[in-house]
């Protein structure tokens, strides 16, 4: 893997050179991991004029509470105090000229401390250069996402075989998270969502003590973290032998919208076009007002990355971009439906979008 | 609770007025929760010249993944875009004069955006004013910490009644986290640590697939989040019927050090004096080199708050300050011992330090 990370750093270095920056300081944790391959929490990467150095906190702000990640491909240099400030201290204005920092991640206080440690060093903005570099994945990254999705599918599949009626949302969520780890996840990719009855399909629902009842919609959202890569799957089920007519109708509507979005995932498609494909059927059915501001997003080292699939999003999909497609409709007081998949954009010649989360999307009555 | 939050805001407003700031923008999540009583993730609090407003993201960056917290005591105003920028937009240079922001939390990019939205508004640094206000807790906060500690004690007690040999660190950690939630925690206060054999007592250990074996030291660190308040307990046990002589000796040493630290928790004691009381016996026994940079810290809405109990820490303890006391010694290749408690500083007239985590600290052979 070490070559992979060195190649990523070389690409960023080219970008910095083109922008006139002699050095770059990467502080956002997922960006550090992407470029360096790991390191303890709080590590920062200095892409220097001569060499690249990973600086990590000697003590860690929260030593004893959080552990180190996998070994990085760079030598990790333990530093007392703020690693970002120490990194800047390795530079001189004459050697580096300017240092590009991640202004969208660095705090004002750290930025000021960096500026003070090397007077005369010009601080510029690296912007989201690393985040943009992360959008298109290589096949090794996609392999990790594929395994993460398999783990989530397994955990969900096992839950569906168990008795659900009478159990609380909170316990079902914990059970799913335990199963994710059982199947090899480092942990859940994000806090697992289990929503029953009137909660089902609701955005931002946190598992409560409500118990699953006969006739409920049950919506579940979960994902696995496998080697840092995070996927997302969401499904909605009906509890009991026969769904009500309104439940079948709502499910079919959301399913059709989600399929339209999935089918729009071709290289060259605009982010907003995919969103429109998903959103259109729901708006046409009169559910426009309650819809989420976006219907999908990128995944990778973070569960929520670019691109954003939203009405005003600019940009076009490339091959090897993993995204979620996950519309949902919630009817206040009654519940609702949400269906999320993680897919990888592939050219039609390669078979079109690759579905990573393969749990059935038939409406199961459990 | 609404009066409590209003009183906290009034105190901060006085501090701002004294510093000449007409308004303050609070962005750090634990600080927002402390002053406003809750709100969806990403909410910010504007302590304005006329009124206080909680601004929350209309969509939430990660809507659907994370839920809203308990209802705040202020009206939550949904905002499209960055709530911090929108908050600044409510001010004029003439009405506010200057706006104090949390430079240790706010990113450079957000700071710049805030500056751009109201040209002429002077941005000053609020510093850690709210964090300092949070150090001394009121009795309601301490009651939450007490319940959090009870929950952790229960979870740990139940684990000790089960069979441990042959189970992995990872599964024991998950089991503990499930039990925390079973007993009423919102979740774990931090990722649970379970360390066996050569891992035991090691700082920053993450649960692995190593299984508990006869003769192991087993060290466990966990805590509950109860209504946002987080505690910490750490214990070390021996697996099997009879601990080895070196295990008993090491345990007694760490126990004596931890007791010395606990006994130092009186109002007026210097942070560094408590650290020295804990650290001294370990250094005297030749374990100085491997010790953590601090032996305890504050807890509350965050698991790691001020004060820091460390050799160079400045300041003195007050009554009603909850802190951890948790020394540990790790012998590479052999394992080690760590014992953590959460206590509240109380005057001697009130019985001295209040121990919140009451699980026994006898060396149990399990």
Quick synopsis:
The structure is a homodimer of 366-residue chains. Chain A contains 10 helices and 19 strands.
Could you walk me through the main structural features you see in this protein, from its secondary elements to its overall organization?
2 copies of one chain form a homodimer. Chain A is of the alpha+beta class and 366 residues long. Chain A folds into 2 domains: 2-134, 3-Layer(aba) Sandwich (Creatine Amidinohydrolase, Chain A, domain 1); 136-355, Creatine Amidinohydrolase, CATH 3.90.230. Chain A has helices spanning 2-19, 29-36, 83-89, 93-96, 108-117, 129-135, 139-160, 169-182, 245-263, 271-284, and strands spanning 23-26, 44-47, 52-57, 76-79, 98-101, 122-125, 187-188, 193-196, 217-222, 224-226, 229-230, 233-238, 296-298, 305-309, 322-325, 328-331, 335-338, 341-344, 354-355. In chain A, the strands form 6 sheets. A 6-stranded mixed β-sheet of chain A has the order 4-3-2-1-5-6, sandwiched between helices. In chain A, strands 7-10-11 form a 3-stranded antiparallel β-sheet. Chain A has a 3-stranded antiparallel β-sheet with strand order 8-9-12, covered by helices on one side. In chain A, a hairpin with a 4-residue loop joins strand 2 and strand 3 (52-57). In chain A, helix 3 (83-89) packs parallel to helix 5 (108-117) and helix 7 (139-160) packs across helix 8 (169-182). The two termini of chain A are 44 Å apart. Mean pLDDT of chain A is 92; it is low at 60-68. Chains A and B meet through helix 5 and helix 8 of A and helix 5 and helix 8 of B.
């Amino acid at each position: 893997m070490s070559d992979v990370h060195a190649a990523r750093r070389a690409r960023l270095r080219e970008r910095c050179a083109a922008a006139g920056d002699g050095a770059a300081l990467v502080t956002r944790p997922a960006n550090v991991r992407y470029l360096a391959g790991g390191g303890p929490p709080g590590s920062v990467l200095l892409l220097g004029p001569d060499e690249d150095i990973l600086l990590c906190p000697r003590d860690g702000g929260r030593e004893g509470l959080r552990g180190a990640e996998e070994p990085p491909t760079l030598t990790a240099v333990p530093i007392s105090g703020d690693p970002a400030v120490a990194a800047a201290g390795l530079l001189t204005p004459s050697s580096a000229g300017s240092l590009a920092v991640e202004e969208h991640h660095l705090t004002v206080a750290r930025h000021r401390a960096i500026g003070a440690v090397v007077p005369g060093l010009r601080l510029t903005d690296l912007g989201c250069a690393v985040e943009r570099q992360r959008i298109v994945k290589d096949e090794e990254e996609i392999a990790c996402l594929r395994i993460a999705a398999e783990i989530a599918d397994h955990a969900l599949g096992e839950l569906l075989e168990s008795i659900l009626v009478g159990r609380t949302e909170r316990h079902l969520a914990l059970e799913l998270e335990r199963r994710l780890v059982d199947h090899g996840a480092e942990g859940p990719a994000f806090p697992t969502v289990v929503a029953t009855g009137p909660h089902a399909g609701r955005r931002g629902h946190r598992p409560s003590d409500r118990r699953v009842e006969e006739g409920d919609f049950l919506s579940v959202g979960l994902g696995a973290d496998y080697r840092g890569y995070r996927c997302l799957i969401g499904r909605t089920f009906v509890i009991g032998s026969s769904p009500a007519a309104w439940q079948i109708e709502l499910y079919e509507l959301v399913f059709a919208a989600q399929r339209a979005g999935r089918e729009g995932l071709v290289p060259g498609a605009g982010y907003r076009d995919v969103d429109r494909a998903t959103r259109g059927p729901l708006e046409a059915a009169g559910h426009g007002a309650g819809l989420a501001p976006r219907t999908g997003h990128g995944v990778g080292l973070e569960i929520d990355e670019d691109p954003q699939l939203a009405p005003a999003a600019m940009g076009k999909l490339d091959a090897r971009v993993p995204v979620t497609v996950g519309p949902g409709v919630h009817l206040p007081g009654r519940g609702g439906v949400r269906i999320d998949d993680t897919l990888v954009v592939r050219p039609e010649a390669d078979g079109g979008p690759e579905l990573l989360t393969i749990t059935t999307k038939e409406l199961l009555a459990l």
